[in-house]
Amino acid sequence: MAVTKTTDVIIPSIFSPYSIERTAELSDILQSGAVDRNPAFDALANGGGSVIDMPYWKEISGDSKLIDQGVPGVPQPITTGSDKAPMLNRYEAWGKSVLAQWASGADPVAVIADMVAGYWGRAFKRILLKILDGLFDNTNGVLRTTHRVNIYTDVASPAVTAQLTGSTFVDGTLKLGDHSPEIFAVLMHGDVEGALRKQELIQYVQPAGAVGKRIPTFQDRNMIVSDDCPKVAGVNTPAYHTYLFGRGAFGHGVQTNDPGDATEVDRVALAHETHLVSRRRFILHPRGVKWSGSAAAAAGPSDAELATGTNWTKVYTDKNIRIVAIKHNIA
Question: What are phi and psi of 23, to 5 degrees?
């Protein structure tokens, strides 16, 4: 009887695009609307280079002018700016024992693809949080004052005004002024979600046709929960960061033109081992904040470099950077 091997069922040209699409479907941060994957970013990810130039039109401002037939008008220039995104190159590999466990179901290819997609969904969220660490770094973060509400107090019994509530959430949205209605999603630590749930401040919606599936919302915004969100110990109580996003606050693109490089199955015959290697070359970039660092490695910036405040520079006007942080206590 012939034995089906992992090398037989995982065909990179089929597995790679399926795994990429399943990542988008399974990832809560990609599904939330806070991250926008679009063909333009995919095209950039499929190109070369370690830093990607992303020119943009600057916002048109100024007062309108009176029409005076006797005085010729003076047109105002429409100018462009330059945003830059680092190219991220990451991989993970799994060995025989893990693959055997994943492939034990009736459809081993789908099971393995879903596990790989789930891994990358969580990896993208952790990388996004590292970028936020840099943007809101207490010393050098470019958004630490303009886009953060700090109501945290290091006391054993914090007042309600130091906690995340409907009122303090609104205070956070107002960091974007008249663009505050564009806040679309909120990312919080599990402890924060638990505190809000105890106060019955979380509402649930059920998508049409999705029987048994309920999506949590806070203040009518999509909720993402991750214990990778900052929880910094204090003397008396920890400080939490909750993040608010406008739709498409982060741009996202994935290399798709080389499935054979994205997925590789390696059989080491003499070692009796099979390895599955999954590689992703991608963009995950906060729109309006330029990467101004220099990565130490050719593969792109490390998590530590992404989390370094001096590696980021604002290029959009404040209201057009759709990212806000609230530093707060919980009850």
Answer: -60, -45
Q: Give the residue among 107, 123, 124, 121 at the shortest CA–CA distance from 26.
A: 121
The domain locations on the chain are 6-48+81-328
Spatial CA neighbour of 280 closest among 257, 255, 299: 255
Per DSSP bridges, beta strands 148-150 and 323-328 are parallel
Query: Cβ(190)–Cβ(228) under 8 Å?
Result: no
Mean pLDDT, residues 279-284 taken together: 94
Using one digit for the tens of pLDDT, what is the confidence trace for 157-175?
999 999 999 999 999 999 9
- Report yes or no: 205 and 217 within 8 Å, Cβ to Cβ: yes
Which residue, 288, 284, 290, is CA-closest to 251?
A: 284
Q: Encode burial over 77-112: b for 16+ CB neighbours within 10 A, e otherwise.
A: eeeeeebbbbbbbbeeebebeebeebbeeeebbeeb
Distances (CA, A) of 246 to 119, 173, 228, 250: 25, 10, 20, 9
- If residue 192 lies in a helix (H) or strand (E), which one and from where to where? helix 190-198
Alpha helices in 258-322, H assignment, sequence order? 259-262, 303-306
* Pairing mode, strands 263-268 and 51-57: unpaired
Please tell me the number of Cα atoms within 13 Å of 227 on its side-chain side. Answer: 3
Greater pLDDT, 164 or 76: 164
Average pLDDT on 230-247 reads: 97
d(CA 86, CA 128): 13
Bridge partner residues of 274 (DSSP)? 267
Give, in degrees to the nearest 5, the angle at Cα 166 between 227 and 154. 60
Q: What is the rounded CA–CA span in Å between residue 59 and residue 57?
A: 6
pLDDT classification of 104: cutoffs 50, 70, 90 = low
